[in-house]
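User: tokens in, sequence out, please.
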């Protein structure tokens, strides 16, 4: 069964709700105030099943939107996920202000299909109806509702005339609507939230992609709160699952009606990301005033709305009728993806002025204008492979993880892996640890790492090498990429890794015979002392080499962590401290706490050694001081 969402658009009191009732038999005005006042205030919903041209069943979900200017924000909440539109124009009034604004909104949201319906045709004579038809045809010419491609159908919702013709036209157009992607992850922008007695919290919306089943775990964005689906309804009927393109109601556990509202979205956990910055392609209406850089506007996407600041890329304004690249800086975070459509309304007075599509919901800071333009151009017109490689390349040697790629594109992990098979085989992208990295950026990192090791040896020719962690601190690069880069350099024999040291091949420390003997003497002195270490100055004074060379040897031993300095005066052999940590940890089974006296007795040392050693254990998170005692962690 193919599901199609049909939206109404048009001026107040032009018969949108009556038309939906004539088509479906359902009164979409659900609020008491709507029935009392005779106008639609909020979004209404109805549904209809019709036989398709090939014998299949078409399920049409109708979203009835308000026409009054004051309720355009509600209209926007309902029209974001539609497949085709019914532009409703009353034959006795013709084109009115909200007709124009609703029509502009449909064009800006890139609605591709629709039918123009002349309602209340029974209230005018045939000559008047022909005049209105000509006026409407002229208004629509050149648009997606151009009369040469899209019909204009007169109807009377009360008398029923034209309804059968409208239904058959709906069937023909609905058959041509491409099916929504039910294989991508689910996204449900929420347009209603309420409580049902005996069920709890219920949310509704148009499922724009994916599939939702009973017992699925979902996440509320931007709250990042987990919920469980207790029940699913499609067009008011219980169902095993809801698929993309269907009006969906979910009974959810884990959230109250006070915690969730229209404008939020549901999606699988850890898929979407929220953002307050969007790089977009923006089209300004010809009827609008020039849109200046840094102008504040009202922003609408699906069921969400907020205030945004427009930052024009490469200019100080956008002229009427122009399409330009810009960044929208949102007052509130929103979960949006590339290709999502949006509407902008002027800050004051509030009228529709522009719309467009999101190109990048994860913009990077401080990008050169030309680089940014090229990147956004690729996102706008490039293939899936080109888009992914561009997203990977812009992150340099940081690369892009699968999770980041999913959040940036909205594509499933498997699809991303498949798309990157070709560039990986061509070696333009390399897979490093948990991420994909641009091959040129990775090669540049190798050159920089090799140069840094070489520079280290120039400044410290006596050193056996640079510590891996010290070298890593000089490069802003993820740990997995850094390790892979070192391993690549080692395979190419451009560096050597000895324990925790990195050095150029054959560039170990070159010690003279007496220096090597002195190092052995120093190590033996501290290794044999355990925790009752001698003063470093006394050990150095006993050596046969001068103090300067002796101090250099100690520096190297500290760098290699053969010796560990825990205070200004105390240096210990690493084996002694390792044994200390082991014994303290084992002591936890006897007692979780230890004080200074017990510590001294346990190791047979004086307070001179006990206090610095306990402070060392605190720093290493082996113990934590609580008053006069230590808690063994």
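Assistant: Sequence out:
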């Amino acid at each position: 069964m193919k599901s199609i969402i049909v939206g109404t658009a048009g001026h107040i009191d032009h018969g949108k709700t009556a038309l939906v009732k004539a088509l479906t038999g359902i009164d979409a005005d659900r609020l008491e105030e709507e029935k009392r006042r005779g106008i639609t205030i909020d979004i209404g919903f109805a549904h209809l099943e019709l036989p398709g041209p090939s014998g299949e069943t078409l399920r049409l979900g109708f979203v009835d939107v308000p026409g009054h200017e004051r309720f355009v924000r509600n209209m926007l909440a309902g029209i974001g996920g539609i497949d085709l539109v019914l532009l409703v124009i009353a034959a006795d009034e013709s084109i009115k202000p909200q007709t124009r604004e609703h029509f502009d909104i449909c064009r800006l949201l890139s609605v591709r299909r629709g039918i123009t319906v002349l309602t209340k045709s029974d209230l005018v004579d045939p000559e008047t109806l022909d005049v209105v038809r000509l006026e409407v045809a002229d208004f629509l010419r050149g648009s997606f509702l151009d009369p040469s491609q899209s019909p204009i159908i007169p109807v009377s919702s009360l008398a029923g005339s034209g309804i059968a013709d409208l239904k058959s036209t709906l069937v023909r157009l609905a058959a041509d609507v491409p099916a929504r992607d039910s294989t991508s992850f689910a996204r449900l922008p929420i347009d209603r939230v309420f409580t049902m007695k005996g069920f709890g919290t219920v949310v509704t919306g148009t499922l724009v992609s994916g599939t939702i089943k009973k017992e699925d775990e979902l996440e509320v964005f931007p709250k990042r709160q987990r919920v469980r689906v207790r029940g699913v309804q499609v067009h008011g009927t219980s169902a095993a699952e809801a698929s993309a393109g269907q009006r969906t109601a979910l009974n959810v556990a884990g959230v109250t009606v006070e915690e969730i509202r229209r404008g939020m979205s549901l999606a699988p956990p850890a898929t979407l990301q929220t953002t307050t910055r969007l790089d977009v392609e923006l089209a300004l209406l010809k009827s609008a005033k020039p849109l200046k850089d840094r102008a504040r506007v009202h922003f609408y996407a699906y069921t969400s709305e907020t205030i945004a600041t427009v930052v024009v890329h490469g200019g100080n304004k956008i002229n009427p009728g122009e399409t330009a690249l810009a960044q929208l800086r949102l007052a509130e975070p929103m979960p949006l993806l590339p290709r999502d459509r949006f509407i902008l309304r002027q800050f004051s007075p509030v009228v529709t002025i522009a719309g467009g599509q999101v190109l990048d919901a994860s913009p990077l800071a401080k990008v050169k204008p030309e680089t940014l333009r090229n990147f956004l151009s690729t996102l706008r017109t490039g293939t899936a492979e080109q888009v992914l490689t561009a997203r990977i390349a812009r992150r340099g040697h940081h690369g892009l993880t699968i999770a980041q790629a999913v959040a940036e594109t909205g594509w499933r992990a498997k699809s991303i892996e498949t798309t990157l098979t070709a560039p990986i085989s061509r070696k333009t992208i390399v897979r490093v640890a948990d991420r994909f990295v641009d091959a040129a950026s990775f090669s540049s990192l190798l050159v920089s790492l090799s140069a840094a090791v070489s520079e280290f040896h120039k400044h410290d020719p006596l050193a056996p090498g640079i510590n891996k962690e010290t070298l890593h601190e000089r490069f802003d690069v993820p740990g997995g990429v850094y390790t892979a880069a070192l391993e690549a350099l080692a395979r190419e024999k451009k560096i050597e890794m000895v324990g925790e040291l990195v050095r150029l091949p054959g560039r170990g420390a070159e010690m003279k015979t007496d220096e090597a003997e002195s190092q052995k003497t120093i190590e033996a002195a501290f290794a044999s002392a355990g925790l009752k270490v001698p003063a470093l100055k006394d050990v150095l004074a006993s050596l046969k080499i001068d103090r300067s060379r002796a101090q250099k040897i100690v520096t190297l031993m500290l760098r290699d962590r053969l010796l560990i300095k825990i205070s200004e005066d105390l240096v210990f052999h690493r084996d002694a401290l390792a044994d200390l940590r082991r014994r303290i940890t084992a002591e936890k089974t006897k007692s979780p706490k230890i004080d200074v006296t017990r510590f001294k007795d346990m190791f047979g040392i004086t307070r001179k050694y006990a206090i610095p050693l306990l402070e060392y254990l605190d720093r290493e998170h082996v113990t934590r001081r609580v008053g006069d005692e230590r808690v063994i962690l």
